[in-house]
Prior knowledge:
Structural class: mainly alpha
Helix content: 40-55%
Strand content: 5-15%
Number of helices: 20
Shape: elongated
Distance between the termini: 72 Å
Amino acid sequence: MKSDMPVTVRFAPSPTGFLHIGGARTALFNWLFARHHHGRFLLRIEDTDRARSTEAAIAAIFEGLRWLGLDWDDEPVFQFARAARHAECANALLAQGKAYHCYASAEELQEMRTRARAEGRPPRYDGRWRDRDSRDAPPGIAPVIRFKAPQQGETIIEDAVQGPVRFANDQLDDMVLLRSDGTPTYMLSVVVDDHDMAITHIIRGDDHLTNAARQAQLYHALGWSPPRFAHIPLIHGPDGAKLSKRHGALGAEAYRDMGYLPEAMRNYLLRLGWAHGDDEIIPTEQAIEWFSLEAIGRSPARFDLAKLNSLNGHYIREADDARLVAEIEALRARRGDPPLDLALRERLAKAMPSLKQRVKTLVELDDMASFIFQVRPLVLDPKAAALLTPEARGVLARVHGVLEHAPEWNAEALEARIRDFVAADGRSLGAVAQPLRAALAGRTVSPPIFDVLYALGRDEGLARISDIATMSADLGPDAAPQH
RNA sequence: GGGCCCUUCGUCUAUCGGUUAGGACGCCAGAUUUUCAAUCUGGAAAGACGGGUUCGACUCCCGUAGGGCCCA
């Protein structure tokens, strides 16, 4: 263990797709651990699979991490570029007799597997070139370099999350380090890179737990002390199976586009497999202070959108209004909507305190704000149209009269005025508020009508009421005003 | 098939041998109310199963079942 060294962790995705939710959580845990210890959080792009690695995926991963607010230290390391260094380490092991050339052909390997299978043994390389002289090598065959793994005893991983995990060494065969074309294998590259990057703690999904044993052996053979391992359980879909496309496993940018706030996502992901007593709302600063590997659970957690929604609603309500306006503008821009002019942006800002109270996502926020973006004459939805009976329109005409001389145009003053009108008229507030809502928003659901009136402003508000009040034709469900 | 890991309300979790098994999301009911929310109050809801160890197990051990990961 390198307890004397500054904490250095890494996130090492393969750029074969977007930053999915499991990767995002792994990155978050690494980031929190680094920030907690005032250490470094590095990025390594494991792009050795040339066929599947893409520039687009690399960009998506960077973008996803930036969106989540997980800033990394130093320039990212690209693994493929370090292949020569990896080969050098394999050759060093070869020179020291800790690795050997293996000339077994693909057919031989296949034969080994089928025989093992037939005999009910686990399919493993049988070590046939382990102690054989290279002079026996068949001509014309480029050898691979295999690791001379210990055959007796056991390898114990003292995992920070899983506790001690023991592997019998005879279960682990002599893995390939360098392929016959001279390219390093994943197992070699990871160990060399983690060592060269001075990684002190490897926090990754527990799908790598078995790899840890072989990697630990490699560390020892190379004369390096292994880092501390922390294998965190994978995230599962709602049905308990591994999270996959089938569950709609999406990239970080998809969650952004669905209207989630990065701080809500961080809070949600943190609580998947990690807890601090009964605390649920844990802002990032607090998370950094509290985070520890010991508190990570060992059982896989299921991804649950309902809880994310709840957290997101909380963070939206807490968010600064100006920021939310900017978020809505960004969302609309991504969707291809024209930018908001000054007046609309101002209306949106005025409505924001009320709007943000009633939504779970930014997409819902945008929808809740649609009354602001509507252009007169409003398109009424069927329920709103049904509310606007001739009688209701008559009421609206009188409300218009009451409001047009209002000295002040703010929610409190408008409410007082309308309540006076309602009281004098002997009606319930609802009998006036609902038609008013239909006229102002074109829907039966909106923020409180006084907030709506205030946000719309005097001219637009009165005009919308007037549009409906002066309408002569019957307003059947199909008679809503059309553009 | 082999190795390894996991198992508390529907979901995320607290509990680190002694609790009426707590909280959150979701759900149901009520309060509030101009709609929808928000908020408040109340409610239903859990230790997979079987053995041990112990005065006492959700908690420790073994087994079974179920799920997952890796290898092929």
